[in-house]
Amino acid sequence: LSQANYIWDARAVARAAEMTAEDRFMCILPLFHVNGQVVTVLAPLCAGASMVLAPQFSASKFFQTVDKFKPTAFSGVPTIYAMLLNTPGTENYDLASLRFCICGAAPMPVEVFKKFEEKFNAKILEGYGLSEGTCASSINPLDGTRKVGSIGVPIHPEQEMKIMDHDNNELPQGQHGEICIKGPNVMEGYYNNPGATEAAIKDGWLHTGDMGFVDEDGYFFISGRIKEMIIRGGENIYPKEIEEVIYTHPAVAEAAVIGVRDDFYGEEVKAVIVCKPGMSATEKEIMDYCFERLAKYKCPKSVAFIEDMPKTATGKIQKRKLVEDPRWTAE
Question: I want to staple 230 with a disulfide (CB 3.0 to 4.6 A). Which of 60, 199, 237, 243 is the partner?
Fold first, then answer.
């Protein structure tokens, strides 16, 4: 990434979020990650705003910090929102200072989105981006139409976004393909790896590795990572669709759907779940819940309950570790 990449993207974020010198951004993400760097440090600085820098994210201390320093916004990943939603005693704190909250780095479960806004009376702006695109490429408008479950529209007129097929052809509205971006925020390349750079950037378009589609209004939706797509007996299954259903179950705090090896179908669908404190569910209960709401071939054929999800330093669920977990790879 170049300095020009950073400056352009920070200004684009500040413009899209309508930041002013009156804003105060709370940074709860690590500063080695572009989300923390761009959204909650550089963008506010571009607008002359101030910041509250937390040493690290803590669900219990988050509410105390908001109550004390009155930030107007913060940026987090979906897992953080789920943790905050399930933190007890939050009614004792004043969150009225929050003008909006930004969510990115991974798809936000619709159920978590709705419940967080309802509980805390906060406006969530879901966006999308990746390190190779500096940070942010799209976001739901602050004052325009917000579509729950969408990653929004291009963050700036100079940011181009398309859905492409395997042959780099643009796909029409509603068809699933790879999300590709082009603009001043696209990286110069991978360090000392021209082969990887050539594979990722074609004719100026960065191929993100994320699957999605665009609707008739130009809003983009993400279906998941290409590498995470489950192919069961020749059928393409997108884990995010199943996770959205599982998150609506009242006992579920976190859910991840993965593909596990199957001798007959090639891959089968497995759900890995963390229950809310003091609540529980059974494998049969979750499977029946999905059967009532999904096509049969998309439903999990097995369910595992664990205490904690493996996560990155920014709070993203590490599905690769779940896929490789010896507890079920040996089955």
Answer: 237
Q: Is the dihedral of CA 119, 125, 129, 131 positive or negative?
A: negative
Name the nearest CA neighbour of 260 among 222, 223, 301, 216.
301
Q: Considering the domain 3-154, what is its CATH architecture?
A: 3-Layer(aba) Sandwich (3.40)
Query: What is the architecture of the domain spanning 229-329?
Result: 2-Layer Sandwich (3.30)
* Token pair belonging to 246: 């599982």
- ∠ Cα 120 126 131 (to 5°): 130
Identify the burial level of 312 via C-beta atoms within 10 angstroms of its C-beta, where 0-12 means exposed, 13-18 middle and 19 or more buried.
middle
**Could you tell me how many residues make up the chain?**
331
Distances (CA, A) of 105 to 52, 131, 136, 256: 21, 9, 9, 15
Is the four-CA dihedral 11, 84, 67, 64 of positive or negative sign? Answer: negative
Distances (CA, A) of 159 to 43, 76, 198, 207: 17, 22, 20, 14
The closest of 55, 6, 52 to 30, measured between CA atoms, is: 55
DSSP 87: -
Tell me which residues of the chain have a pLDDT lower than 50: none
Q: Which two tokens stand for residue 295?
A: 């096509």
Q: How many CB atoms lie within 10 A of CB 183?
A: 23
DSSP string, 143-211: SS---TT--BEESSTT-EEEEE-TTSPBPPTT--EEEEEESTTS-S--TT-HHHHHHHEETTEEEEEEE
Give the pLDDT confidence score for residue 184 in this predicted structure. 97
**What does the DSSP 8-state code read for residue 253?**
E
**Residues whose CB is less than 8 angstroms from the CB of residue 88 and which lie 6 or more positions away in sequence, other chains included:** 277
Q: 271-307, pLDDT tens digit by residue? A: 999 999 999 999 999 999 999 999 999 999 999 999 9
